[in-house]
Input
Amino acid sequence: MAYNSDTQITFRPAVETDMPALTAILNAAITGTTSTGYLEPVTLEDRLPWWDSHLDPRYPILAAEHAGEVIGYASLSPWSPYPVYRDTVESSLFLAPSAQGRGLGTALMRELLAEAKRLGHHVVLSRIWSQNAASLAMCRKCGYELIGTQREVGLRNGAREDCVLLQIILKDYVVSETI
Output
């Protein structure tokens, strides 16, 4: 699948029958990149608590679909269990390898941010490993601002990794249709 402006992509709420595809997309990121915090592939059963945590309508999962196939997803999750942070969420986004590098991530993130604003969230945060230049660029293109770098918070293959923290304040966010 080559995504371009002529490709028909549908963004929709994920449904439970999407879980095998969502899990496969995450596992492709786990095994083929260093973009996740996971070190080993996950099973569908491993992901069920994650799914259940998104049954609350304030924390949606959006699926990107092309020709009947889920090729990516984005989600909003609570940032913290403390009530003071109730209007702050964390975004996550993963694409199938064949859907990467063509602007689909930007379009999907913009859709997720529009949904976050519609739901009344105030701040969306994103944590990205510092070596993930594509995701950092995509977030900045969508209006995220750099908050800082958490130094050496990750350990993968014997090496310490930095994590970049970004945020967007939604009251200032203007929904954009352009990629």
Notes: The chain has one domain: 10-172. The longest strand covers residues 145-156.
